[in-house]
Automatic annotation (TrEMBL):
<protein>
    <submittedName>
        <fullName>Phosphatidylinositol/phosphatidylcholine transfer protein SFH11</fullName>
    </submittedName>
</protein>
<keyword id="KW-0653">Protein transport</keyword>
<dbReference type="InterPro" id="IPR051026">
    <property type="entry name" value="PI/PC_transfer"/>
</dbReference>
<feature type="domain" description="CRAL-TRIO">
    <location>
        <begin position="110"/>
        <end position="232"/>
    </location>
</feature>
<dbReference type="InterPro" id="IPR001251">
    <property type="entry name" value="CRAL-TRIO_dom"/>
</dbReference>
<comment type="similarity">
    <text>Belongs to the SFH family.</text>
</comment>
<dbReference type="Pfam" id="PF00650">
    <property type="entry name" value="CRAL_TRIO"/>
</dbReference>
<dbReference type="InterPro" id="IPR036865">
    <property type="entry name" value="CRAL-TRIO_dom_sf"/>
</dbReference>
<keyword id="KW-0333">Golgi apparatus</keyword>
<dbReference type="InterPro" id="IPR036273">
    <property type="entry name" value="CRAL/TRIO_N_dom_sf"/>
</dbReference>
<keyword id="KW-0813">Transport</keyword>
């Protein structure tokens, strides 16, 4: 496995080669509402445990909705106390990092310039209705990128996009799917690694992508539908 693919593996992705140049990771279909009795009971128990610590007592707070809590339960294999601990850390991070303010106020005015050195973004939906995120990792030019923005703003932009996906993209894709029992809550990711070499992963680049991975795995868990790595 080449060094860039080793890094992708380190980022928490189980990757393997399929026919041609496509590497695919399939995951459970998250787009069907599995609101079975076990899930309902687990979420109820997690809510009760949070309320005992006076966490989540605002019924209008969408951060405590059923599916958000269920994602943290999935993350911790339905261990109530571990899910609770992870969820509380998630809320603490949101407060310290100012996530709600970023979601409402952050303006990534340099986006067009950034795209020249780091092409990435959402493009349509897959056949199951999931939003599709495409990243041309092999075309990243970190030196040029850091001339038009900063690492800090790139991380904020990443968080802004995660919030936009949760608050807008998933609900819009759910409506577009046109099925009352179908809920979209995951993303299909396509990473194009054409041209990617060891030189593409400098210390700064590794820091940036590991920071993205840490945020995604700790604070936006269970949102990957499947991963396609092309031109590897």
């Amino acid at each position: 496995m080449s060094s860039p693919l080793k890094l992708l593996h380190k980022l928490g992705k189980r990757v393997w080669r399929s026919k041609g140049n496509i590497i695919i990771e399939e995951e459970e279909d998250h787009n069907i509402d599995h609101n079975n009795d076990d899930d309902n009971q687990a979420v109820k128990m997690l809510r009760e445990s949070l309320l005992q610590d006076q966490v989540g007592d605002d019924p209008n707070d969408d951060r405590h909705d059923f599916h958000t809590l269920l994602r943290f339960l999935h993350m911790r294999d339905y261990d109530i106390m571990k899910a609770k601990d992870s969820f509380i850390k998630h809320l603490k991070w949101r407060e310290e990092f100012g996530v709600d303010a970023i979601a409402k106020e952050f303006k990534f005015v340099e986006f067009r310039d950034v795209q020249r050195f780091y092409p990435h973004g959402f493009h349509g939906r897959d056949r199951s209705g999931n939003p599709v995120y495409i990243e041309r990792l092999g075309m990243i030019d970190l030196d040029g990128l850091l001339q038009v923005t900063t690492m800090e703003r790139l991380v904020k932009h990443h968080v802004y996009e995660q919030e936009k996906t949760s608050r807008l993209r998933y609900p819009a894709c759910t409506v577009a799917a046109g099925k009352k029992k179908k809920r979209i809550g995951t993303t299909t990711v396509v990473v194009d690694v054409k041209g990617l070499g060891t030189s593409s992963f400098s210390k700064q680049a590794r820091y940036l992508f590991l920071e993205f991975q840490k945020i995604d795995s700790n604070y936006y868990p269970d949102t990957l539908n499947c991963l396609f790595i092309v031109n590897g």
